[in-house]
Write a structure and sequence with these properties.
Blueprint: H1 3-9, H2 27-38, H3 49-63, E1 70-74, H4 80-87, E2 91-96, H5 99-111, E3 116-120, E4 132-137, H6 147-160, E5 161-172, E6 183-189, E7 199-208, E8 213-222, E9 226-234, H7 238-247, E10 251-256, E11 270-276
Parallel strand pairs: 1-2, 1-4, 2-3, 4-5
Antiparallel strand pairs: 5-11, 6-7, 7-8, 8-9, 10-11
Bound molecules: S-adenosylmethionine.
S-adenosylmethionine (SAM) is lined by residues 24, 37, 45-46, 75-77, 80, 95-98, 101, 122-124, 138-139, 141.
Length: 277
């Protein structure tokens, strides 16, 4: 075993320093992720189905202006929102860079005769112009972006929205995690989440206080290799997210506690933002 490599990898990296290894699109991890997405009772890769149903009900009844709108779901995963929205007769496009999720979503849409366009693509590379009435990015993916990626995405979404179109997304707040989450854990598995080979996983959580960002870093050691996975999460407040949206010319921001439309409170663990082009 390359102990020196292990020692180097276990250091706290610079904020938003990426790991080389694929996460969402890794063949093994994406299989485990799809199982998590499709578990109706887990708030893991997707929210519980009861929450997703409540979200779609709220969006349909209180937020969307009419049935003729075009919706773009970024990071759509296996299409849990897209399929429910298409059943309500909305025109939906879903984009995701997990090939496994896109394949599953496409197959389900065919089986259920739903007219949904699924695209396997990195959403940071979209290039639509005034095409959508609503763009969604659900389950706090926004906070995993570096500041540079976030800015690219906000510009691209703005361009992709029709005038007056809505951007709907959620982020974690500083009430979601605190310093009690910092520290190290380990796991040893024959065939677990991180690899189908037997592995030891060393996970450490770091906080970048000045940047409001947590990192969950996992080093996975199998007989053959050592891989590292870094999942950053930037948390926001109403004012930090509002100021960023102002810079990109979004207007009329509305804040909720979650994607079912609950009223925002200071102790909310997430903020759902609905803002307008
Ligand atoms: C936390 S899951 C949420 C999935 C879905 N929005 C839901 O709530 O059911 C994040 C999804 O975003 C996708 N994703 C992450 N970064 C992406 C990117 N840059 N481009 C496209 N998809 C991305 C992942 O593959 C994953 O399916």
């Amino acid at each position: 075993m390359d102990i020196e490599k292990l020692i180097n990898l276990s250091q706290k990296p610079k904020i938003f320093e990426k790991s080389e290894t694929a996460f969402w699109d890794d063949p093994h991890i994406s299989k485990k992720m799809l199982e998590a997405h499709l578990n109706p009772d887990w708030d893991a890769a997707s929210r519980k189905f009861s929450t997703i149903d409540a979200s779609v009900k709220w969006l349909n009844e209180d937020i969307f202006p009419n049935k003729d709108i075009k919706i773009l779901d970024l990071g759509c995963g296996p299409g849990l929102y897209a399929s429910r929205l298409a059943k309500l007769d909305y025109s939906v496009t879903g984009i995701d860079y997990s090939q496994r999720s896109i394949n599953y979503a496409t197959r389900k849409a065919e089986e259920n005769n739903l007219d949904i366009k699924y695209i396997y693509q990195d959403y940071l590379t979209i290039n639509f112009e005034a095409e959508f009435d609503v763009i969604m990015l659900i389950f706090c993916d926004f906070g995993a972006l570096t500041n540079k990626e976030r800015n690219i995405l906000l510009r691209k979404i703005y361009k992709a929205l029709k005038p007056g179109g809505l951007l709907i997304f959620d982020v974690f707040t500083d009430k979601n995690r605190d310093e009690s989450d910092l520290g190290r854990t380990w796991a040893i598995k024959e065939n677990g989440f991180w690899s189908k080979e037997p592995y030891v996983a060393l996970t450490e959580t770091f906080l970048y206080q000045e940047k409001d960002t947590f990192l969950d870093q996992t080093i996975v050691m199998t007989e053959k290799e050592i891989n590292i996975y870094r999942l950053f999460n930037h948390f926001y407040t109403k004012s930090t997210i509002g100021n960023i949206l102002n810079k990109f010319a979004y207007k009329d921001h509305n804040y909720y506690s979650d994607v079912t439309g609950k009223k925002y409170k200071d102790e909310s663990k997430t903020i759902t933002v609905i803002t307008k082009k």
